[in-house]
Amino acid sequence: MCVQYITLMLVVWAVTVAVGVLGETVVVGHATLPIDHHDTSMGTYQNRYWVNDQYYRPGGPVFVHDVGESNAEHTAHRYLGDSSSYMVDFLREFHGVGIAWEHRYFGNSLPFPVNLTTPFEQFKYLTTSQALEDIPAFAQTFRHPHAGLDLSPRTTPWVIIGCSYSGARAAFSRDKHPETFHAAYAASPTVEAKNNDIMYFQQVYRGMIGYGYANCTRNLREIVQYVDNQLSSGPQNASAIKRLFFGPGAEYNTHEDFASALATIYSGFQGRGMTMKNPILPKLCDYLEHNLETGDSALARELVLKLGSEALTQRFASWAPLIGIINESYRTNCAGKNISVPLSCDLSQSRYPDPALISWTWMLCSEWGTGVGPNPMPDSIVSKYIISHDGRNSVCNVQFPGAIDAGALPPQPETNQLNWATGGRHVHPSNTFWTVGEFDPWRSVTPLSGTRTGEANATKYVLPHAEHCYDFRTTSPSARIARKLFVHNLRVWLSEWRPM
Ligand SMILES: *[C@@H]1O[C@H](CO)[C@@H](O)[C@H](O)[C@H]1NC(C)=O
Ligand SMILES: *[C@@H]1O[C@H](CO)[C@@H](O)[C@H](O)[C@H]1NC(C)=O
Ligand SMILES: *[C@@H]1O[C@H](CO)[C@@H](O)[C@H](O)[C@H]1NC(C)=O
Ligand SMILES: *[C@@H]1O[C@H](CO)[C@@H](O)[C@H](O)[C@H]1NC(C)=O
Ligand SMILES: *[C@@H]1O[C@H](CO)[C@@H](O)[C@H](O)[C@H]1NC(C)=O
Ligand SMILES: CC(=O)N[C@H]1CO[C@H](CO)[C@@H](O)[C@@H]1O
Questions:
Q1: Ligand 1 pocket residue status of 118, Cβ below 6 Å
Q2: Residue 120 near ligand 1, beta carbon < 6 Å
Q3: What is the rounded CA–CA span in Å between residue 219 and residue 380?
Q4: Secretion signal: which residues (predicted)?
Q5: What are the residue boundaries of the structural domains of the chain, listed by start?
Q6: Probe ligand 4: pick from 341, 343, 344, max atoms within 8 Å of CB?
Q7: CA torsion sign, 265 to 266 to 267 to 268?
Q8: How would CATH label the architecture of 12-192+423-495?
Q9: Is 10 within 8 Å of 164 (Cβ atoms)?
Q10: How many A from CA of 337 to the centre of ligand 4?
Q11: Which of 166, 247, 444, 493 has the largest CB neighbor count within 10 A?
Q12: In terms of pTM, does the model score above 0.90?
């Protein structure tokens, strides 16, 4: 399992952030919250949030953008401080107050310091259910930062918005705390916890076909089959195929680490699809397809059929950018590309030093499930070896050595317990607007896996030609439709709200 698919949930807008022209109107606040909502003797910590109240008029709602599993500072300024953001649009339209909320154990919202030496017991309060109590506790005493007006849910309708894990949190929040949240916008809501989701790459596969890359998927399937045959046909062939791709020394990697490294080619899909902003997959496809002499793709295909999958695999392995991509992701020097440092091509998992990744990995290892599995034959576009077959959960063991043996982490993430506690894919609160991207790799763990594309239902919308968390992008046409539908619903829901 490589870092791309563990960080994935929110690393979707690695695009340049516009400078917040309204930056000075965003104020940061700190809420004092119990570390343990069930036992106040554990003490309190400070949870960070940001507020923009410049569009507020009495009677307007409070919008909370729940940032989820990252340091929220960047997102807070992007959504609250940028006059062209979706949030500022909502604030203007409804004369609301906007809040960006940082999740406990992320950024500066730390019950305990998070780093590689954090004792396991200090992660005890990093649970989905504890985190679901944080905003409701904060909301009770929330006041207009300048005018001091009571803006708690007793006097003001609250609306929670999120995507991916925080999209699931939006739905769960409305479900568990209807007294706090009057409405929710759940975008790409990954409500179902799951280990080794085999539909992830199936969606990538469907998306590639949807975007006109069917031939490329055929090529990649043939390559994957060839690679898997070589990996399973004795140590000599296995070593040879690893060296073919990543040079001398690559043979010391396990099948799992090697196969996961190859799957890096799909890492840009969920955030960028097959557009030219995706720096890997479309370029690799073109390279595999095109006959260098004539530029004729049909001809290339014929050539491949004649030469067979071994030749095709060799062509992939000789794609010039590949080793650079791997060296960058894994901080290796495979094939000795950098002549000023020694050759090193160890593709094994190492510990993430980034605090947000440490906390998120803890959540995955304890509750949400880790990894994505190979999509089913005959459509497999990734090696069957991307999952380890030794029964041990290597990501969790590597990141938190000894935690499973000490009983601080379960042997396997307790996905069933979490789904039972949250409702998982059966969560169905009222006043909730649901969306997902047509080719979102995470679509199968949302409640919209069966919904038709573009179907403009009252409270559900599948964004055509979109992937993960496209809803808040100002430039996406289908996101604009989604937000319009939400606004339409929200007007009705707000008209039904009554103070307590
Ligand atoms: C790392 O975490 C430990 C335990 O929580 C804490 O005592 C220590 O100060 C932290 N180190 C840094 C550099 O923040
Ligand atoms: C190694 O691969 C070649 C080419 O696919 C195959 O002919 C050969 O049988 C394989 N060797 C073993 C030991 O399976
Ligand atoms: C896919 O390959 C077929 C030949 O096998 C060719 O006729 C067709 O033009 C190719 N499609 C694209 C989009 O390159
Ligand atoms: C080669 O590695 C050194 C040391 O890590 C680094 O400073 C340098 O930028 C690298 N060179 C290139 C061309 O990436
Ligand atoms: C809206 O969704 C419901 C259930 O999700 C479905 O039964 C119904 O046909 C949809 N309505 C429209 C107009 O698409
Ligand atoms: C750390 C390191 O050596 N990275 C290298 C990976 O490969 C690219 C190009 O192939 C080099 O430019 C990097 O220096």
A1: yes
A2: no
A3: 11
A4: 1-23
A5: 12-192+423-495, 200-399
A6: 341
A7: positive
A8: 3-Layer(aba) Sandwich (3.40)
A9: yes
A10: 10
A11: 166
A12: yes
